[in-house]
């Protein structure tokens, strides 16, 4: 009881104070990790140019918001939306303790509790899909709405996707752990039938997500590394070629310089060159060259080894080559493409690898699920085979942890069989002890109840002997009249009547005792009246009640001839046990009474045993009928009421209820179906 109270207190405190807050904090932490990883890895994976984030340059090209500010806003928006979702989904969990306490007596509360338990199970799954899909879908929609359709935008979406998947996996693990602790405290033993999420699907999605993260990250890292290598080669190539052309052609004007640049043999058709004059203004540039590229060439390239970066994530860079034309110091800018067909082919291969891994993971998860399902099916088959439930064992079908599980279960089955045999042996000993106690009580009652009628019969025999002698002496006595003979005969008949009365009483005692003696050996089903039940019970407890100075008051509020069907001796034993406990509840206090009231309606007969004794403590009441509990110390086994409850429930399909209050008394109510 103490452990249960502590558990309930822990549950209440955990649910009311920590659960929703913990779920929100875990979500916020996971999103923070995801955003932080994205913040760190995006410039690396997408080849952001040095000086393009969290600088004045960043503000100018990003509408006034720095890289950090953009991520902060995204983090706050996602966190706020996610927390609102979690709080809305868990708003009923604050009533979980109350519903748990009411679920045992209220069907509506049980249904609400089941719905909340289901929510605790499914909420981590829902958040997994939300976190893994919504950010990537949202950023895709934003890019499409703004008209961004370049490969750079696709790479941004890929980065968001891998971080979302990683964050979703972390959120799923931590949130499931939080809600699992709640479910453990609740102690629910029934699996919800709705929204079942199979182990195969769950495992496939989880593992495939990690594989997809690794594949996408590998591809982006390869692409980034390839861009760096190719940029370095093109940087040196175009620098050398421009310098060689200028030396050979020796241009003196900007127009001549432009004509010289037209002689460059570009590696790609989309490569181009233009001039930045001494005022850093572009001359002869193509419209395809972005403002971002020009701005970077004007402001940042000179401090970055003359390397020019195009817009965030774009597969294009450039080189800045200072040139002196006459008295003017100008710059030649070559813009070159860094895309690689090999990487496109690699992407296709990676897609094939992802599909292959997904299928392989699915079949792997299916094989594990089948192994577990086989164990479950065997366990259910064992549970249905009630006769051999403890001797049945599972077949080992694998040499891994699942095989260890089956092997451990078989070991437990062996131990359980031994324990059940020991319990049955101990139970037989307890039953035998209770039978001997009942037999001893019965013999004491027989000795006392038979003593009085036997002495009465002996006295009657002595009286009859004297009357016989008197009658014999009067046969030849002339003074004895006819009336005297009649008087002697009348006295004989009186003694004979007394003998009949006492022998009938002894017959009733013997019949009742014989029934109880046979009850110790077996059961005998028959029909009997309520009157027979009360009469035989009264006979068997008369001696104990007289010894305890307690009287039994019987009262019929219904027809005593109402018939019941079953083993009357079992029912007598139940009544005797309850009446005996009631007499002992007075603790030797004399001149007390016990009420035995019998009532009935169309469906049931009701037997009430009422005393005004010491009553039972709350601890005893909580254990009554559930355990073999006794308040008699070493003088009791506690099996009496435990067996009585089993007898009424199992043999008669009835029920026993009680009300008790310490120092006030106890009332037992036995309900017996009439049909």
What this model shows, in words?
With 675 residues, the chain is α+β, with helices and mostly antiparallel strands. Among the domains are: 2-197, no CATH class; 425-522; 524-675, Histidine kinase-like ATPase, C-terminal domain (Heat Shock Protein 90), CATH 3.30.565. It is built from 16 helices and twelve strands. The protein has helices at 2-45, 56-61, 67-89, 96-102, 107-146, 151-186, 199-249, 254-261, 291-299, 341-384, 401-473, 482-521, 530-547, 568-584, 618-623, 639-652; strands spanning 272-276, 282-283, 307-309, 316-325, 328-337, 526-529, 550-556, 563-566, 592-600, 604-611, 655-661, 665-673. It has a five-stranded antiparallel beta sheet. β3 and β4 (316-325) form a beta hairpin. The longest helix is centred in the middle third of the chain and has 73 residues, at 401-473. The two termini are 39 Å apart. Mean pLDDT is 77; it is low at 1-9 and 628-639.
């Amino acid at each position: 009881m103490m452990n249960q109270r502590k558990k309930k207190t822990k549950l209440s405190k955990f649910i009311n104070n920590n659960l929703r807050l913990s779920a929100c904090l875990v979500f916020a932490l996971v999103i923070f990790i995801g955003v932080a990883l994205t913040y760190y890895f995006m410039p690396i994976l997408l080849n952001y140019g040095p000086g393009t984030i969290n600088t004045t340059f960043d503000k100018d090209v990003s509408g006034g918001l720095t890289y950090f500010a953009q991520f902060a806003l995204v983090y706050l928006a996602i966190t706020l939306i996610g927390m609102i979702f979690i709080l809305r989904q868990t708003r009923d969990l604050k009533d979980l303790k109350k519903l748990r306490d009411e679920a045992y007596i209220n069907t509506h509360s049980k249904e609400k509790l089941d719905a909340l338990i289901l929510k605790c199970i499914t909420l981590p799954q829902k958040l997994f899909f939300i976190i893994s899909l919504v950010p990537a879908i949202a950023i895709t929609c934003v890019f499409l709405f703004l008209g961004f359709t370049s490969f750079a935008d696709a790479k941004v979406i890929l980065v968001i996707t891998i971080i979302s998947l990683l964050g979703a996996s972390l959120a799923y693990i931590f949130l499931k752990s939080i809600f699992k602790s709640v479910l453990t405290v609740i102690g629910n033993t029934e699996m919800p039938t709705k929204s079942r999420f199979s182990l195969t699907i769950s495992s496939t999605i989880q593992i495939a997500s990690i594989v997809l993260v690794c594949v996408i990250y590998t591809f982006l890292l390869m692409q980034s590394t390839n861009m760096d290598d190719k940029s370095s080669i093109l940087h040196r190539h175009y620098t050398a070629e421009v310098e060689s052309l200028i030396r050979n052609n020796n241009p003196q004007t900007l127009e001549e310089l432009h004509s010289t640049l037209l002689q460059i043999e570009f590696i790609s058709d989309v490569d181009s060159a233009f001039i930045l004059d001494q005022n850093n203004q572009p001359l002869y540039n193509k419209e395809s060259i972005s403002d971002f590229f020009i701005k970077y060439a004007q402001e940042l390239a000179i401090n970055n080894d003359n390397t020019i970066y195009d817009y965030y994530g774009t597969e294009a860079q450039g080189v800045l080559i200072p040139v002196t034309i006459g008295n003017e110091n100008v710059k030649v800018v070559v813009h070159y493409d860094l895309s690689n067909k090999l990487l496109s082919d690699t992407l296709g291969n990676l897609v094939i690898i992802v599909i292959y891994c997904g299928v392989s993971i699915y079949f792997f998860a299916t094989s594990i699920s089948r192994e577990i399902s086989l164990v479950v099916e065997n366990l259910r088959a064992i549970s249905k085979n009630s006769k051999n439930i403890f001797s049945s064992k599972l077949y080992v079908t694998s040499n891994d942890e699942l095989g260890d599980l089956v092997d451990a279960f078989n070991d437990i089955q062996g131990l359980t069989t031994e324990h059940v045999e020991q319990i049955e042996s101990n139970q037989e000993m307890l039953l035998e002890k209770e039978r001997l106690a009942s037999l001893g009580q019965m013999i004491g009652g027989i000795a006392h109840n038979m003593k009085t009628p036997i002495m009465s019969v002996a006295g009657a025999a002595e009286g009859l002997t004297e009357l016989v002698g008197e009658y014999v002496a009067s046969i030849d006595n002339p003074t004895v009249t006819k009336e005297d003979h009649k008087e002697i005969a009348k006295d004989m008949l009186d003694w004979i009547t007394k003998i009949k009365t006492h022998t009938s009483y002894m017959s009733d005692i013997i019949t009742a005792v014989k029934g109880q003696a046979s009850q110790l050996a077996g059961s005998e089903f028959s029909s009997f009246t309520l009157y027979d039940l009360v009469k035989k019970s009264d006979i068997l407890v008369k001696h104990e009640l007289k010894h305890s100075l307690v009287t039994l008051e019987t009262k019929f509020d219904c027809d005593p001839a109402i018939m019941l069907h079953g083993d009357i001796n079992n029912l007598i034993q139940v009544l005797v046990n309850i009446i005996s406990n009631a007499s002992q509840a007075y603790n030797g206090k004399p001149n007390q009474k016990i009420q035995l009231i019998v009532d009935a309606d169309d469906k049931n007969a009701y037997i009430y045993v009422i005393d005004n004794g010491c009553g039972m403590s709350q601890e005893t009441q909580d254990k009554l009928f559930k355990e073999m509990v006794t308040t008699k110390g070493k003088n009791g086994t506690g099996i009496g009421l435990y067996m009585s409850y089993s007898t009424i429930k199992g043999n008669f399909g009835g029920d026993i209820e009680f009300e008790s209050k310490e120092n006030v008394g106890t009332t037992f109510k036995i309900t017996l179906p009439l049909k």
